[in-house]
Amino acid sequence: MGRALHSIFWRAVGFLVVLELMLAPAILYFPEFKKHTQSLRAMAPLPVLRNVIDTLEAGGVFAYVAGQHFFKGCNTLGTAAAVLFACGAVAGEVHRGTFEIWLARPISRRRMLTERWLQGAAAVTIPVLLSTLTIPWLLGFVEQSLPLWPLILCALHQSALLVAVYSLTFFLSTLARAPMGIAFVMLFFTVLQFSIYLVENVTHFSLFRLTDVERFLYIQQHGTFEWSKLLPLLAISALAYIASLVAFSRRTP
Fold first, then answer.
1. Nearest 5 degrees, angle CA 228-CA 232-CA 237?
2. 8-state DSSP, 246
3. Got the DSSP string for 39-62?
C-alpha cells in the first residue's frame, strides 16, 4: 500500500469511527426525544430549528434518524472530512516537494489523478454507507425498526453532496501550492453554508437544503431519489473532476 493510499485508508477508518460514535448515542436517545419533543421545541431559539423539530416529530423514527445521522453527522463532519481529504491531493505533493517524484511514475497523468480522486471519494463515501448499515441493528436496542433500502438511498444521496464538496476542493488542490489555504477557504465556505441554513430569510440559499430532513423524507415516501436535488450535485462533481484533469495536465513542477 502506497503512502498516499495508506494515509487515506486510515483517515477513512477514523471518519467511520467518529460517525458511529455520533450515531449510536443519538439513536439510543430516541425514546427520550419522543418524551420531550415539545420541551425541545419550546427551547429552540430560531424558527428554522422549530420547523426542524416539527419535521422530526411528524416523520417519526425515520425522520429522527435522518436528522441525526445524515443532516447533523454527515453534513457537518462529512463535509469537513471531504475538504481535508481533498485539499492535499495535489497541493500536498507540491508543498512536501514530492510532486516531481510523483509525476515520475510510469503512468499517464490522467490515470494518476483519477486514482487519487477515486481514493479520496471512496474514503468520503464508504464510511457513510457502512455506518448507515448499522442503523437497523442500533434501532433494535430501542425497540424500533426501519427497512434498509430507503436508508441506503439516503446514504447515496448524502454521499453525492460530500463528493461534490470533495471534488471542488480537489480542483482547488490541482491549482494551489499548499493545502492549508484551500482547507481554510472551503471549511469557511461549508460553515457559512450551514450557518445560513439556520437563518429564516436566506435558508433556501444554503447548500445544505439539498440534504436536509425533508429531502430524506421524500426518498422514504417515494422510494427513489429527488432527482431535481441530486442531479445538480452530480453535475458539480463531474465538472470539478473534468476541470481538475485539465488543470493537472497543464501543471508544471
1. 150
2. H
3. HHHHH--SHHHHHHHHHHHHHHHH
Q: What pTM was estimated for this model as a whole?
A: 0.92
Residue with cell 420547523: 51
Count of beta carbons in the 10 Å neighbourhood of residue 211? 26
Residue 108 exposed, middle or buried by CB count within 10 Å (0-12, 13-18, 19+): exposed
Question: What is the residue extent of each domain of the chain?
Answer: 3-250
Residue with cell 512536501: 96
Residue among 156, 151, 154, 153 at smallest CA distance from 133 = 151
pLDDT digits (tens, 9 = 90+) for 58-70: 668 998 899 899 9
Query: pLDDT tens-digit profile of 209-224?
Result: 999 889 999 999 999 9
d(CA 212, CA 82): 18
**Strand ranges in the chain using DSSP code E only, listed in sequence order:** none
